[in-house]
Design brief:
single chain; Rossmann fold; 15 helices; UDP-N-acetyl-D-mannosamine dehydrogenase; NAD binding; UDP-Glc/GDP-Man_DH_C_sf
Length: about 425
């Protein structure tokens, strides 16, 4: 079986390599010449545990090649970005999906399978993709098979979850579902659920919308707790001892290409009905401004104007900073009177913004932890001793060890930190 994956980003590349590592002949297609050259030299361009080792295996086996243009294949998998449109509801921009499908149409033939893995708005497969395919004269469900099979993986654990997670196969017809399911059965060990394309689209979106809404509840609790001088993290810990309660953890906002994006696709499709979803989005997008406001309060009478930010990625131990609230906070603080220094061991920073921990902590009046990288679990004594004022605000509740003499608080109890500064 020859599989062609169009789009070699955070999902497309691991998917392509997984198929290549399980006996398929795989061609990866992307528009970046530098990326293609690097991949064909056996090097991956994203940070993901185990991915380089997998690339090395398939490179040596000759089962994966990368190129700039599409060609004939048995299966086409589309895994390209779907950003928000610049409209009032931030609806789904399917132009990249349409371009990818158009690029494969000249090579489409009877018996082919087309799978859309990109996260898309409800009804996109039937309303947008199917007409493009059938413009060739081929009939979906009879001549070719079309399905939406959304990815459901966690960055940092992608290779394990590709194999073991339940996979949803949303075919335009029942036979489309059967054909697509047979493709993933090559390596998927989790359950394979066959459904309709629309149900698959909305299911993926609602998985992330549920999490976004739950985090919004936790973030709103942070604001309530700081107003009432009650530790939100302690409240969450106790509430979650109830057997039917699972409040998520609060933070500086929500990032990544799923939770920060997907809920808009749902609310744009039915804006009058999606009121709770829109409110949750508003709460989460307010958090960077909330954090910046608190930082400015903490720095009002600080001995220096220097603030040290730990982390730019949207989550720990990866290099992905798409939609990262840490980036938003960094940019907003940089526009103030403060001197802002940022550290991130996983994200490639411009040379002028690259500092050692010693340099970043020296003369700092506040350390703001924005990403839960493992490197921040322990803050070394020698770093803290270089600070002008040893205040730590941990927005991710990642710090486990902090030297004696430093003042450490989370966003769940930062009212204590503010009270201490004002005294």
């Amino acid at each position: 079986m020859k599989i062609e994956t169009i789009g070699l980003g955070y999902i497309g590349l691991p998917t392509a390599l997984m198929f290549a590592d399980h006996g398929a002949e795989v061609v990866g297609v992307d528009l970046s010449p530098n990326m293609i050259e690097k991949l064909n030299n056996g090097q991956v361009h994203i940070e993901e545990p185990g991915l380089q080792a997998q690339m090395t295996r398939v490179h040596e086996a000759g089962t994966f090649t990368a190129q700039l243009t599409a060609e004939e294949a048995d299966v086409f998998i589309v895994s390209v970005p779907t950003p928000n449109r610049n409209d009032s509801f931030k609806s789904c921009d399917v132009s990249y999906v349409q371009a990818a499908v158009n690029s494969l149409l000249p090579f489409l033939k009877k018996g082919n399978i087309v799978i859309i893995e990109s996260t898309i708005a409800p009804r996109t497969t039937v309303d947008d993709v199917q007409p493009l395919i059938e413009s060739t004269g081929l009939v979906v469900g009879k001549d070719v098979y079309l399905a939406h099979c959304p990815e459901r993986v966690l960055p940092g654990n992608i290779l394990h979850e590709l194999v073991h997670n339940t996979r949803i196969i949303g075919g335009v017809t029942a036979e489309c579902s059967n054909q697509a399911a047979a493709v993933y059965a090559r390596f998927v060990q989790g359950d394979i659920i066959k459904t309709t394309a629309g149900e698959a689209e909305l299911s993926k979106l609602m998985e992330n919308t549920y999490r976004d809404t739950n985090i919004a509840l936790a973030n709103e609790l942070v604001k309530i707790g700081n107003k009432l001088k009650i530790d939100a993290h302690e409240v969450i810990t106790m509430a979650n001892r109830h057997p039917r309660v699972n409040i998520h953890q609060p933070g500086p906002g929500v990032g990544g290409h799923c939770l920060a994006v997907d809920p808009y696709f749902v609310s744009a499709a039915a804006p009058a009905e999606a009121l709770l979803i829109q409110t949750a989005r508003a709460v989460n997008t307010s958090m960077p401004n909330y954090i910046v406001t608190k930082v400015l309060e903490l720095m009002a009478d600080a001995p220096t104007k220097k603030v040290t930010l730990l982390g730019l990625a949207y989550k720990g131990n990866i290099d992905d900073k798409r939609e990262s609230p840490a980036v938003t906070i960094f940019e907003k603080l940089r526009d103030t009177h403060l001197e802002v220094t940022v550290i991130d061991e996983h994200v490639l920073l411009p040379i002028e913004e690259q500092f050692t921990m010693d340099e970043a902590f020296t003369d700092s009046s506040l350390v703001l932890v924005l990403t839960d990288h493992a490197e921040y679990k322990t803050l070394a004594t020698e770093w803290i001793n270089k600070m002008s004022r040893p205040l730590i605000l941990d927005t991710k509740k990642i710090v486990e060890t902090c030297p004696e003499g430093a003042t450490l608080h989370t966003i769940g109890n930062m009212y204590r930190l503010l009270e201490g500064v004002k005294q």
